[in-house]
């Protein structure tokens, strides 16, 4: 979206795709949808079409123009592995990350099966580069934990988990092969609560497994 991100664990956001649709409970209060829909119908606005998915090829070269190294969150307003983004377009995004290798990229998805399949085929070379971090969202046990297995089943050099919003205790989570974990509660109107013991359990599991743990926020209505 810009080179000045407000997301704490990243410096810049880059959105060569805009828009998405909901796939699991973690999407219920999607901040990207809320933001995008505010501008639906505003002529000339980047989100004139609201949260409808569309490719933005004119954004593809943006990281090549940022000369100073940044931590870049890829598709903060979408999901790169959405079914309506063609393999060819994902490969074009990947090519920019391969060439503009002075940045560190964080690619986060809920479509972990497609990411797994592409990291094992078309994107296998990029997967092993340490300047691209591949991550999955984990909001609960049912949908979230299988995504970790999909991520583990890739040749990614750096794997991370975005556990946000954490909606329940993740129990005996397997963190083998994971480099770091970000945890946060949901914010804003209707925010679903996150219990302290769920966070403590995850922190302790990270500690036992030697995985870096970043606690982002408790969340809440305010
Ligand atoms: S996958 Fe991400 S961007 Fe897409 S609707 Fe869900 S939370 Fe929003």
Can you put this structure into words, describing what you see?
By secondary structure, the protein is an alpha/beta fold. The protein is 27% helix and 18% strand. The structure holds iron/sulfur cluster (SF4). Iron/sulfur cluster binds at residues 20-23, 27, 30, 32-33, 78-79, 110.
SSE map:
Layout lengths: L11 E3 L2 E2 L12 H7 L16 E2 L6 H4 L5 E4 L12 H13 L4 E6 L2 H8 L4 H4 L4 E6 L6 H9 L5 E6 L16 E5 L11 H14 L2 E6 L5
Parallel strand pairs: 1-4, 4-5, 5-6, 6-7, 7-8, 8-9
Antiparallel strand pairs: 2-3
The structure holds iron/sulfur cluster (SF4).
Q: Going across the major beta sheet, what is the strand order?
A: 1-4-5-6-7-8-9
Number of strands: 9
Strand content: 15-25%
Radius of gyration: 17 Å
N-to-C CA distance: 25 Å
Main sheet properties: 7 strands, parallel
Per the principal axes of the C-alpha atoms, what is the gross shape? Answer: globular
* Secondary structure category: alpha/beta
Give the overall average pLDDT.
Answer: 95
Name the bound molecules. iron/sulfur cluster
| Overall helicity | 25-40%
Unreliable stretches (pLDDT < 50, length at least 5) are none
Give, in order, the helices and strands. Answer: EEHEHEHEHHEHEEHE
Discrete helix count = 7
Entry summary:
This protein is an alpha/beta fold. The chain has helices spanning 31-37, 62-65, 87-99, 112-119, 124-127, 144-152, 196-209; strands at residues 12-14, 17-18, 54-55, 71-74, 104-109, 132-137, 158-163, 180-184, 212-217. The longest helix is centred in the last third of the chain and has 14 residues, at 196-209.
């Amino acid at each position: 979206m810009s080179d000045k991100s407000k997301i704490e664990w990243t410096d810049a956001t880059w959105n060569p795709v805009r828009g998405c649709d909901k796939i699991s409970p973690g999407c219920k209060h999607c901040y990207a949808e809320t933001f995008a829909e505010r501008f639906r119908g505003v002529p000339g606005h980047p989100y004139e079409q609201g949260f409808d998915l569309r490719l933005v090829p004119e954004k593809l070269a943006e990281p090549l123009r940022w000369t100073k190294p940044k931590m870049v969150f890829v598709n903060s307003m979408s999901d790169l592995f959405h079914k309506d983004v063609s393999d060819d377009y994902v490969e074009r995004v990947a090519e920019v990350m391969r060439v503009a290798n002075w940045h560190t990229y964080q690619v986060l998805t809920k479509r972990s099966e497609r990411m797994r399949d592409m990291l094992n085929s078309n994107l296998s070379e990029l997967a092993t580069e340490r300047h691209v971090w591949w991550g999955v969202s984990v909001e609960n046990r049912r949908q979230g934990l299988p995504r970790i297995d999909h991520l583990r089943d890739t040749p990614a050099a750096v794997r991370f988990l975005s556990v946000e919003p954490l909606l329940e205790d993740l129990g005996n989570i397997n963190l083998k092969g994971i480099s770091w974990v970000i945890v946060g509660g949901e914010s804003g109107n209707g925010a679903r609560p996150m219990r302290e013991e769920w966070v403590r359990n995850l922190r302790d599991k990270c500690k036992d497994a030697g995985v870096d743990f970043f606690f982002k926020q408790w969340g809440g209505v305010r």
